[in-house]
Amino acid sequence: MSMRIGIDARFYGPRVGGGGLGRYVSELVNALQQVDRENEYILFLKKENFHECAISAPNFSKRLVDIPWYSVEEQRRMPREVRLAKVNIMHYPHWNVPVFSRVPFVVTIHDLILLEDPMSARATTRSAFVHGVKSVGLRLALEAAIHRSKHIVAISQYTKRSILEHFRVPSGKISVVYNGIRPPSGGESVDLNRFGVRAPYFLYVGNRYPHKNLEMLLESFADFCRMDSQTMLVLAGKDDVFTRELQKHAKALGISNERLLWIDTPTDALLARLYIDTSLAITPSRIEGFGIPPLEALSFGVPVAASRASSLPEVLGESVRYFDHDDASGLTRLMHEAIVAPELWSALRNKGVAQAETFTWKKTAKAMCEIYRHYADRRV
Question: Is the pTM of the predicted complex or chain greater than 0.85?
């Protein structure tokens, strides 16, 4: 018997939903269209990404619900939209679940940065009062998502442990379903000189929120610049208010503009070229629910240095070299080795490619299909 499955796809695509959550939703939706031609899927989308979401399977359809996430409108209007769709089960890919919806649902929890990293949780452009009210609301929504869900999907064992530490739920209510990766392509057509990138360079890919620990990365690079006069640091991600703060920090550290390049929202082709030509890809995060950028780098066979924090050792295994997330000098040493002794990294190249190949979106989609099937309400 086929099911009718709803997916809250309002975060669909990196352009609208961001490089992490937006990519998760788009890749999952695309992979589900390849692996499941039996069940019916209804994708709830915003106006900004409605046409961006491509339908390639006859059992998938789109429903326009132009409702902002984390809003009063989300809580007021989404329950009705979901009810009218008459789905057997909803999948919310984030914990912003409508509290008053009575339709059974599963929820994906990527991380608990809101609770575990005070610096990121407090990062806001709003007033202290507005932020305080918003934080209480977000905490309540998270509590509701955890406790009212039929099942919880964690994207790593680390995230599952975090949920169990913060909430009183049975371990059996949580399944670990790893993300996949689909390395960017088209790099052969890109000339990095046009973007101001010159080799050698180090590469960071991702957003610039406080938990990404980019202040420490800049401090390490400032130390490295005292022993090297050529290597650049390229930071590829979405330009935002945090970028401006980091640029001030870099200036205070004495890093010249010629050594530092900020690339706003790179295309897949540019990102692929950046990975291919880098001397070292760096992930300095204090917290990561999974870690797609370092896996993408590994898929290109390039050296990766990552912090020994949260999910990163679980996901990256023995294919990278690690440093402590608060040890700027340790990262500086790895930077220096990548430039003066690249042969020290050569043994990791094949390991890295093999590690990256273990994570595919088809595996993710197949696992999610089983979860939908198990927890759907057949009475609808």
Answer: yes
